[in-house]
Amino acid sequence: QSVLTQPPSVSAAPGQKVTISCSGSSSNIGNNYVSWYQQLPGTAPKLLIYENNKRPSGIPDRFSGSKSGTSATLGITGLQTGDEADYYCGTWDSSLSARFGGGTKLTVL
Amino acid sequence: QVQLQESGPGLVKPSQTLSLTCTVSGGSISSGSYYWSWIRQPAGKGLEWIGRIYTSGSTNYNPSLKSRVTISVDTSKNQFSLKLSSVTAADTAVYYCARELRLRAIDYWGQGTLVTVSS
After folding, report:
1. What are B's interface residues with A at a Cβ cutoff of 8 A?
2. Radius of gyration in angstroms for the set of CA atoms belonging to chain A, rounded to a whole number
3. How close, in Å, is residue A2 to chain B by CA atoms?
4. Smallest Cβ distance to A98: which of B106, B108, B111?
5. What is the dihedral of CA A41, B37, A65, A81, to 10 degrees?
6. 8 Å CB contact between B4 and B24
7. Looking at CA atoms only, how far is residue A18 from chain B in angstroms?
8. Tell me, what's the pLDDT at B55?
9. Which of A47, A50, A100 sits opposite B47 (nearest CB)?
10. CA-CA distances (angstroms) from residue B100 to A4, A41, A86, B12, B107?
11. B100: which DSSP letter?
């Protein structure tokens, strides 16, 4: 059971927008940065969002992140079939351990 | 561009010690305020952080694995390593090494290596 709670799956049509939620507590998200990772099938996770809402170089602005209290949200606009992947939120806890959500499978219908 | 590559046996017998090495290229493991982490992922499941090391040698481990984990660094070879003792089938997973910006992001990942625990 993951410390961070994500919906198991979300889906939307190409061109549409989708959001993925990540719920935690004051001992993790509430007092630490949140990051988001995209894992395409058979590949390693890739950093999408860091420090709650910043995008690494090369990540399109279709991807956005936000945090409020003990929850965070990943938004993806202009969905493409290539966005089909598993998405994980991540943060840290009071013991300095990195923590991940259980992952959300995005299907682009 | 930093690159990380895991190496080590793909098959380990139960009760033995799993040993993996991560070789970092494209930059010195000693430069910058980076931490070097191990993360694993059982087939079809989510990510589990194992632990991290700083080039000073200081470490942090997942409390659930702490009694069995040792992470070390060899700056002369630009490598860091993982040892997980007393393995069982539950330790079967893809193991990733990664670079961590302390408490901010895990920005570079290795491609991962599958380790199977079986007799």
Report:
1. 37, 39, 46-49, 52, 60, 62-63, 96, 100-101, 103-112
2. 13
3. 8
4. B106
5. -10
6. yes
7. 21
8. 86
9. A100
10. 19, 23, 20, 27, 6
11. E
Worst-scoring range by mean pLDDT, A61-65, B24-28, B54-58, B82-86? Answer: B54-58
Q: pLDDT 10s digit of each residue in chain A, 109 long? A: 788 999 999 999 999 999 999 999 999 999 999 999 999 999 999 999 999 999 999 999 999 999 999 999 999 999 999 999 999 999 999 989 999 999 999 999 8
Q: Is B55 exposed, middle or buried (0-12, 13-18, 19+ CB in 10 A)?
A: middle
From residue B20, give the alpha-carbon distance in Å to each of A29, A50, B10, B23, B91. 31, 27, 9, 10, 13
Of the residues B66, B104, B114, the best mutation for testing chain A's interface (the one with the most A CB atoms within 10 Å of its CB) is B104
Residue A24: what residue type?
G
Q: A35: Cβ–Cβ under 8 A, 6 or more apart, which residues? A: A47, A48, A49, A50, A51, A89, A90, A91, B104, B105, B106
Q: Which residues of B touch A55 (CB under 8 A)?
A: none
Nearest partner of B112 among B92, B93, B91, B96, judged by Cα:
B96
For residue A7 the two structure tokens come to 């919906």
